[in-house]
Amino acid sequence: MSVLASARRPARVIPGFGITLGFTLAYLSLFVLIPLSTVAFKTIDMGWSGFWGVLTDPRTQHALYLSFGTALIAALVNAVFGLLIAWMLVRYTFPGRRLIDAAVDLPFALPTAVAGIALTALYADNGWIGSILHGLGLKVAYTPVGIVVALVFIGLPFVVRSVQPVLEDLNLDVEEAAATLGATRWHTFSRVILPAALPSLLTGFALAFARGVGEYGSVIFIAGNLPKVSEIAPLLIVIRLEEFNYAGATAIAALMLAISFLGLLAINLLQAWNRRRTGGE
Amino acid sequence: MAFSAKQTFYAALTSVLIAGGAASSVAQADTTLLNVSYDPTRELYKEFNAAFAEDYKKQTGETVTLRMSHGGSGKQARSVIDGLEADVVTLALAYDIDALVENGGLLGADWQNKFASNSSPYTSTIVFLVRKGNPKAIHDWSDLTRQGVQVITPNPKTSGGARWNYLAAWGWAEKAYNGDDAKVRGYMRDLFNNVPVLDTGARGATTTFVQRELGDVLLAWENEAFLAIEELGPDKFEIVVPPFSILAEPPVAVVDKVVDKRGTRKVAEAYLNYLYSPTGQKIAAKNYYRPISPQYADPQDLKRFPAIDLVKIDDPLFGGWQKAQKTHFSDGGVFDQIYQPK
Amino acid sequence: MKSSLIAANRGALIAESALIRTVIVLVGVAFLALFLFMPLVLVFAQALSSGLGAYFAALIEPDAWAALKLTLLVAVISVPLNLIFGLAAAWAIAKFSFPGKSLLITLIDLPFSVSPVIAGLIYVLLFGSRGWLGPWLSAHNIEIVFAIPGIVLATIFVTLPFVARELIPLMEQQGTTDEEAARTLGAGGLKIFFRVTLPNVKWGLLYGVLLCNARAMGEFGAVSVVSGHIRGVTNTMPLHVEILYNEYNFAAAFAVASLLAILALLTLVLKTWLESQGAGNGSNKH
């Protein structure tokens, strides 16, 4: 507590603020902000009506709806299973636990194109899993469900890695107190553990969601890419570029950028607020 | 403990740096020529480039290194427009090379007159690839709209090959329904209702059909269909040649702005002219392209190309690529109107 | 009396029944098997489907080698740059308070959620021949997009947050007391950094570098937009996988993919080892 308190004191005793912040801002401007500003300027060039025209096009709307919708479903799936996996890794001992703990980061490390090709081969009607599902009358690859599968793969580590440290730090005494006071295990979970883990779960959910909205490499292989059915927004950007329609491409890009920026800002403000709340004042 | 951990940390850091030093830079040859092409020509140019380099060395004593870039035709054109320094382009359709003229004036508008036969040293057509034994009995374009037939074709908006597929179907329907526009559109609508997946490129569509075993018939370039059979098993697929199709002319061009800057005009022109030479024509036929000078090709190779009634893109029906593109494939064009996903 | 009973029952009170435990573990493992392990197994199964000879032939083929070299070159340039950036950003953000901090963190996070396609697009809009700087670059014969610099730039963009995001929470958690003490004892800025801060965060730092490196070598979407796909020149390994796949050379595509998967696994092994080192060291404070 005292450490955290002193961190917030304007501690200009330590040197290097100017140079590191200056370097950070310069680097960020050079590699991120200036390049990203091209999207903004290109969009301003096309004018409000042009921009609006692109965004109200049914095909664009469907692509955006699909990208955000599948990312949302995948993030929800990941929130549930990510929490379960994090819990399992923190609280239980079972054979292969360390292996599984390490493997959770696989989607961070495996190239998305490789993941896309592998998932397609696996979930296509003649694949290992797809053939079983096909027998049950279910289709995964080349449908929006396939997109969700790819996004679940991409997003899982975000949730697990956000929640895991919080679960590790949970104070067992509180759970114990709840139990002695007669709470059932489910009560303890829903009233004590979940509220404590919720901010980190939200962060993981939001990161998985944000990543899923923009994901391209793994999705294009498995999606089927039918306009107005399984065509995601990033693919539509690529298609617009290939039609030499730069304005159309940048308009979609601008909207997606704005949404991801606002989403991330919300998460970071939430986290900052949460740090203050739990900081001990 | 802390000391050993510190050591390992710096050892790890050092090894990362050494691994970095080991990655050497990419070697540069004296004369290089970059050919930016579309997807199905990989095998053709692999063989042709070797033959050309050898011949050029013999003729001039100069060594030339040929580099290839393959991808969807539209994507490749866009890359060239945005600065990919292609000395020559060999794309799927004239429209994509026209785009280089319009966007950035990379070559003259009269490029199609620079080489013989509309700058297309080889042609192809659109055929059907079906599963062995043709279980769905697909023989003509009319069979594609039957209930329960799944047709695989890439997206005409992104794939050059898919545009030829689309126009071939349109040409057939136009003839079959005596130009009744409503019926032609009805046919096209039914056709695309039978399409379960729209890949972005011709190669993606072939993979879907062959590897994922999706669909009953693949609309493909003739050369692509032959290649798929050769590479992936004659016991699994067969080619059905419809009685009517389209003359697909994949054109070639020297990119003036690039060759003048790099000083490679001479070798670039020699390269494309060599496509018209007996050797070039022979290699084209061998790789399943229909040569424009069949007399140079191996007669065995020619036997693979049955005569078909062919509509041309310059026929009044389509009126050339600029018009066809605008009518059919632009935003809100005919394709957008007929394409109604379920 | 009562309290000793609680102590004895501590494990039982806050644990689920054996049945629930088993169900949770089974569900978790099944989920991971479906989404993580099967794809990985498939990559190797397909890679070896044409035999070991074909597998190694695909790996030593010249274009595959060129792709490997380019991938390493790109990682070697972009990872150290992002490492320096991550250190500077974490120092400024974790050790000081200033207005707009959340905004700055958000901007650093942004590349995480920007679609890789957009990441490639922005460099084309900036440096492409019809981009802002295109005419000037062309006049001075400088190639950026469709050449190695473009690939490096796109990779830097995509991997920029990794080191910074790993370090910021760690440094915040550790506070500033150690540094302040060193300062009071008369140490200079660099000395504080190398003697006090760096040893405290080195494991987190290395973990960030590992993830950054893995993403740098595996990036597909952004690099695909700026690469130009020239064989043997601007093809990175992930792009080479796509090319082989498009040549119906599935076994070879999966062979190169398996090499990338091995790099990914190696990263995970190193990461696990780092964590055990970090925990043993007590430098991780939680």
TrEMBL record, chain A:
Bilayer topology = Multi-pass membrane protein
**Main location per UniProt?**
membrane
Q: Which family does it belong to?
A: Belongs to the binding-protein-dependent transport system permease family. CysTW subfamily.
Key word Membrane present: yes
Domain named ABC transmembrane type-1 is located at 64-268
- By its UniProt entry, which SUPFAM superfamilies does this protein fall under? MetI-like
State its role.
Part of the ABC transporter complex CysAWTP (TC 3.A.1.6.1) involved in sulfate/thiosulfate import. Probably responsible for the translocation of the substrate across the membrane. Part of the ABC transporter complex (TC 3.A.1.6.1) involved in sulfate/thiosulfate import.
Q: What name does the UniProt record give this protein?
A: Sulfate transport system permease protein CysT
Which species is this UniProt entry from? Insolitispirillum peregrinum
What the entry lists under PROSITE patterns is as follows: ABC_TM1 (PS50928)
Q: How does it assemble?
A: The complex is composed of two ATP-binding proteins (CysA), two transmembrane proteins (CysT and CysW) and a solute-binding protein (CysP).
Q: Where are the transmembrane segments?
A: 21-44, 64-90, 102-124, 136-160, 192-210, 244-267
Q: Which InterPro entries match?
A: CysT_permease (IPR011865), MetI-like (IPR000515), MetI-like_sf (IPR035906), Sulph_transpt2 (IPR005667)
**Which key words tag this protein in UniProt?**
Membrane, Sulfate transport, Transmembrane, Transmembrane helix, Transport
Compartment(s) where it occurs, according to its Swiss-Prot or TrEMBL record? Cell membrane
Q: Is GTP-binding among the key words of this record?
A: no
GO CC annotation, single: plasma membrane
What terms describe the molecular function in GO for this protein?
Answer: ABC-type sulfate transporter activity
Q: Which PANTHER family match?
A: SULFATE TRANSPORT SYSTEM PERMEASE PROTEIN (PTHR30406), SULFATE TRANSPORT SYSTEM PERMEASE PROTEIN CYST (PTHR30406:SF8)
Automatic annotation (TrEMBL), chain B:
Q: Name one GO molecular function term.
A: molecular carrier activity
Signal sequence span per UniProt?
Answer: 1-29
GO cellular component: a single term: periplasmic space
- Gene3D superfamilies associated with the record: Periplasmic binding protein-like II
Q: Which UniProt keywords apply?
A: Periplasm, Signal, Transport
Localization recorded for this chain is: Periplasm
What Pfam families does the database record attribute to this sequence?
SBP_bac_11 (PF13531)
GO process terms (BP): sulfate transmembrane transport
Give the UniProt family note: Belongs to the prokaryotic sulfate-binding protein family.
The family database entries (NCBIfam families) matched by this protein are listed as:
3a0106s03 (TIGR00971), PRK10752.1 (NF008022), PRK10852.1 (NF008106)
PANTHER family in UniProt:
SULFATE-BINDING PROTEIN
What's the name of the protein? Sulfate transport system substrate-binding protein
Automatic annotation (TrEMBL), chain C:
Entry GO MF terms: ABC-type sulfate transporter activity
Which organism encodes this protein?
Insolitispirillum peregrinum
- Enumerate the transmembrane spans: 20-45, 65-91, 103-124, 144-164, 250-270
Do you know which PANTHER family this protein is assigned to?
SULFATE TRANSPORT SYSTEM PERMEASE PROTEIN (PTHR30406), SULFATE TRANSPORT SYSTEM PERMEASE PROTEIN CYSW (PTHR30406:SF1)
| Localization of this protein | Cell inner membrane
Task of the protein: Part of the ABC transporter complex CysAWTP (TC 3.A.1.6.1) involved in sulfate/thiosulfate import. Probably responsible for the translocation of the substrate across the membrane.
Q: How does it sit in the membrane?
A: Multi-pass membrane protein
- Keywords for this protein: Cell inner membrane, Cell membrane, Membrane, Sulfate transport, Transmembrane, Transmembrane helix, Transport
Task: Enumerate the CDD domains for this protein.
Answer: TM_PBP2
Gene Ontology annotations for the cellular component aspect, listed alphabetically: plasma membrane
Q: Entry's PROSITE patterns?
A: ABC_TM1 (PS50928)
Q: Which InterPro entries match?
A: CysW_permease, MetI-like, MetI-like_sf, Sulph_transpt2
Q: Which Gene3D superfamilies match?
A: MetI-like (1.10.3720.10)
Please state the protein's primary subcellular location.
membrane
UniProt-recorded name of the protein: Sulfate transport system permease protein CysW
